[in-house]
Specification:
This protein is α/β, with parallel strands linked by helices. It has helices spanning 27-38, 50-62, 77-91, 116-141, 159-163, 167-170, 178-195, 224-235; strands at 18-21, 42-47, 67-71, 96-99, 148-152, 202-206, 246-248, 251-252. The protein has an 8-stranded mixed β-sheet, sandwiched between helices. Helix 4 (116-141) runs parallel beside helix 7 (178-195). The longest helix has 26 residues, at 116-141. The structure holds NADP nicotinamide-adenine-dinucleotide phosphate (NAP).
Length: 255
């Protein structure tokens, strides 16, 4: 049911709420789109591949979600600029941005043998990509009465968990690119929180848990739907909700 719909979500809004999710063609991002759509939000499916994006939009629409496709490669300036223009031309603003797209860079990534090119590639997507997309969409988010930004992080980016008892075994493999990229993302997100303090923009980080997706060869133990839950909650926070937090289903993730 594409087009403008009236909805009321947890934020008490009674106008259509527009969301954009990056990397929404599959995995956790798709389920975030499905979950927000089921709550009545209009969802932009950000995806870099035309066929995968069209298929996801069609599947969401078949499920009754007001979904639209947004060609979007988070590593490409032109693509991100065009994505922001598409949203602006169609809606004039954005209410919710979920920076979900991410890569591991492939394993193994032992610190003593890693190819620096892998680190650059992962940081380009998981960190610079988030900055690129956020900065392109911020002018549209500023026009919203209740803007929300959710950055998809991971508890493997928690230095407390990495360094705590059993950290090396409980927080994933020793890896030089992916976990540090999420630590970097958390640090970057906090800088946005500081600059945007005093505005109505709530920015938080979500950890989905260990979810069975392409990212880990489907070795995760949670479903993508379960993995989407925290991001959906943070995307639909009420105006008095938290900002600058790092959350998983069970509550705060330690830094
Ligand atoms: N799975 C887990 O256990 C887990 C745990 C903690 C955090 N996370 C985080 O959750 C997020 C989603 O991961 P997932 O598990 O759902 O992985 P996934 O199934 O591999 O999905 C990743 C998504 O990101 C997209 N993507 C990758 N590079 C992109 C780019 N340059 N531009 C646009 N889109 C791009 C992919 O698109 P293509 O289909 O085109 O490749 C895909 O849609 C990631 O940020 C990940 O780090 C996952």
């Amino acid at each position: 049911m594409p087009g403008i719909t009236l909805c009321s979500d947890d934020r008490g809004m009674t106008e259509t709420t527009i969301a954009l999710i990056t990397g929404a063609n599959k995995g956790i991002g798709y389920e975030i789109a499905a979950g927000l759509g089921a709550r009545g939000l209009t969802v932009g499916v950000g995806a870099r591949d035309d066929q995968r994006r069209d298929a996801a939009v069609a599947k969401l629409r078949a499920a009754g979600v007001d979904a639209f496709g947004v060609p979007l490669d988070v590593t490409d300036d032109e693509s991100v600029t065009a994505a922001a223009k598409l949203v602006e031309d169609r809606f004039g603003r954005l209410d919710v941005l979920v920076n979900n797209a991410g890569i591991t860079g492939g394993m193994p990534q032992e610190p003593t043998r890693v190819d620096p090119a892998i680190i650059r590639t992962v940081v380009e997507t998981n960190v610079i990509g988030v900055i690129r997309v956020t900065n392109a969409l911020l002018p549209l988010l500023r026009r919203s009465s209740a803007p929300r930004i959710v950055n998809m992080s991971s508890s493997v980016g928690s230095l407390t968990r990495q360094s705590g008892p059993g950290g090396a075994t409980t927080t994933g493999p020793v890896a030089m690119a992916y976990p540090p990229s999420k630590t970097f993302l958390n640090a970057v997100t906090l800088q946005y929180v500081k600059e945007l303090a005093g505005t109505n923009i709530l920015i938080n980080m979500a950890c989905p848990g260990f979810v069975a997706t392409d990212l880990n060869g489907f070795r995760g133990v949670r479903t993508p739907e379960q993995g989407a839950a925290t991001a959906i909650r943070l995307a639909t926070l009420p105006d008095n909700g938290p900002t600058g937090g790092f959350f998983e289903d069970a509550g705060d993730v330690p830094w």
